Structure formats: structure tokens, C-alpha cells
Amino acid sequence: MEYCTKSNADVDIENGELLYDDGEHKFVWLGWGRLEDGLIQTNQYLIVHGKKGTLLDPGGIHIFPKVVSNVTKYIDLDDIEYIFFSHQDPDVSSGIPMWLSVTNANVYISELWVRFLPHFGITDLSRIKGLPDSGGRVGELEVIPAHFLHAPGNLIVFDPISKILFNGDIGAAVFSDTNKYLFVDKDNFNSHINLMEGFHKRYMASSNACRYYVNKIRSLAPKMLAPQHGAVFRFEAVDMFLNWLNNLKCGADIIDEISR
Ligand code: FE
Q1: What global pTM score does this model have?
Q2: Residue 121: what pLDDT?
Q3: Domains in the chain: boundaries
Q4: Residue 213 Rama label (left phi>0; alpha psi -120 to 50; beta)
Q5: Who surrounds ion ligand 1 at CB < 5 A?
Q6: Rounded distance from Cα 22 to ligand 1 centre (Å)
């Protein structure tokens, strides 16, 4: 098995799913717990390469026990080398002190946010590594700048082995507690727009920022886009999403409409 081709009805919501697995390299979606009902639902991801692991936006205090228990199905906490955070929002980063205490990993985030982290209770910044605006690398992963979508210092991660792009808040959808699904494919893309549109129009800074991102991402040709909220776009739906975002008017473009 390489890419997950399961239908939404067959997805294991509690325990998570392997989005990609070639035996040596895995990209794991860590599932949703019942604790998330009533709050903004978030996705956490783990990349395992050989014996070592990287966590992507492992989330806030509320979901920490669930994420730890699902991570340890794949890897010992001691083998997590890197933890990456796309931006500074509390649903993304408020768990940093706990992750520092249960792993030996270094934490990577845009250097814009390093001075804000002590407000989440972090006193020792020695394992916090600020990433420059231009991105760079975390191990074998490529860090791609996607600023103003929505945070002014916003970084995302491309895994060159699985060709899955961890997208932060870009492509986020807001589900109700009763209708959640993991995958967006070509047949449910159009209905999925209803769950994304409000968030993207209000939070994404401008169509200029969206088009800059779309150009960069098209050149990477990802097979899946894995956002921090909502569902994972796979195969044909990746291009459908990029086309939709490329034409979206949002943020500063529609300030009249927003402020009225
Ligand atoms: Fe956010």
C-alpha cells in the first residue's frame, strides 16, 4: 500500500489512518477524539521515517492525551526528533510546553513567533528553533513560506517522499459535530466548498497572497494537501482546490464587505 484510497465510510476516525506508507516511510493522520466535539476540530499528523518521527501541528492542551496515545501506536516518544508548528494560534501551539516535557525533540516555528511562546508557559527557549521567512528544511522535509495565509509568519511543510503537503490553515474546513469526513475527492469537492468559503474569505489576507501560494505549490505537484482543520484533499481534488483558491477574493480585497 502506498496512498490511502479508503472511502470516507471506512476511515478509522478514532485511531487515525496512514495517508502514505511504503514500508520505510509513513505519513499518518492521527484521528479525531470525542474530546474535540464542541471545539474547533483539528488535525494532527506524524511522519515516520525509519525509526525517527516528526510531528506537525500536534495541537493544544485539550487533545494532548489523545494525540500522545495515537502517536505511541507508531513510534516511541523518545524517537520524535522534530516538532513543527505552522503558526502561533493557540489551537496549534498551546501544547508546546507539554510536548517539550514528554519528548527530546526540537521545536520549529517561524522566528516571528518565538518571543510569543513564553506566554504559553515555556521558560527554556533552548529547544525552540526560529525559522526564517524564506523557510528552509527540517530534517528531510521542505519548509515552504505561505505568509499571510492566514498568519503574517506562516510556514507549511512538503514531504518530498510521500509528496504530501502539510498545509496549516490553508484549505481548512469547519465541520459540524455530526458531519465530519476525512477525504475530499473530485466527487465531493463542490459540496466541500461550503465548509471552507467563509473561513478563507475572512482569514486569508488577500488574493495576492493566495496566488503566490498557488504558483509555488503547483510546481511541487503534491498528491495530497493535509490541512490543520477539516479534510485532506487527495489526487484530483488537489488541483481543484488550487484553482478555487487562485480565484478567491478574500481579506483585504473585500474589506468593504467585511466591515459593513
Ligand atoms: Fe490559525
Answers
A1: 0.96
A2: 87
A3: 8-259
A4: alpha
A5: 89, 169
A6: 31
